[in-house]
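Entry 14. Structure prediction run on the chain below.
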Amino acid sequence: MRALTWHGRRDVRVDTVPDPTIQEPTDVIVGITATGICGSDLHLYETLGPYLDPGDILGHEPMGRVVEAGPEVTSLAPGDRVVVPFNVSCGDCFMCARGLHSQCETTQVREHGKGAALFGYTKLYGQVPGGQAQYLRVPFADRLPVKVPEGPPDERFVYLSDVLPTAWQAVRYADVPPDGSVTVLGLGPIGDMAARIALHQGARVVIGVDLVTERLARAAARGVTAVDLREHGAQLADVIREMTGGRGTDAVIDAVGMEAHGSPVAKAAQRVTGMLPDPVAQRLMEFAGVDRLQALHTAIDIVRRGGTISVVGVYGGMADPLPMLTLFDKQIQLRMGQANVRRWVDEILPLLDGGDPLGVEGFATHVLPLEEGPSAYATFQAKEDGMVKTLLRP
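Output returned:
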């Protein structure tokens, strides 16, 4: 089959690789019909190379049709249309039973002290082959894949793999009060969708911050108050306080993470880390702070006293400093974590059955063949051509 594979920093290729096979009686093989490029895939493209091997198959936002089912699979059959969540979760363990599928005890990567394995996401998370490919082996077939109806196009459902549940959890964790206010830092796919969900769930004021013109325009068209970081810079928190009675918003969602602008020292550390020999780079990431924390510090400044910060952007450093005095003094609640995809599916799926209140159809700015994956990664990383969300068609 053809698959998009990692070969080095800013070097991804579409290669011919062996087809996946049934390995456990509860597996299915899914023929992929649509698969997304995620903002967190750029961390593999740019920073997390020390935890990848050449030839690793990337991608964790796939959907398609079952082409083969193991002998113990009872709920799916060849031809069924499914979305594959990015957490590899069993659905039965202590953590899964409590809705913490990203902490699944069956697939936890204990060697690295991490939670559940993830499709297409480094040795830290199990080095499981990903979904930017023609076929994907999916374990726990009776519990993990999400069966979706025929009829609507793939775009209606494919975001159940990551974007929708990640953004949904971000808003839930933000705990925006009824008729309250929230600032979303970063209007990439997750931030954009989180802003839409916050509005849908009744937030009175949703402020979206970014520095990419196309992203700001997309958010504004959906009713978000778009604020251009380029115009306000260090005064951003003051501007938002002026918009919210001098207090700041009830909540802030950090949808930026380690890709934040600013902090040239941390930026240089990320770049150097990507160039070091793997053992050295791994130790640097595991025992040093290599994140650009500008977005998180901005969130702490913006949120009102007694408010909540929900961190959905991915951070990678183990020793990143936090302003604990400010967090304590402002009585800020801080919530974060990988999305527990299966936890939120039942709440989200009714919104996709019939209407389209969140605008998932048309959410992708680019739909391309798999063979154009390498150029799509480069364009996405450079924030060029108005690219906000890309779907690949294997």
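The chain is about 30% helix and 20% strand.
Filed with the rest of this week's runs.
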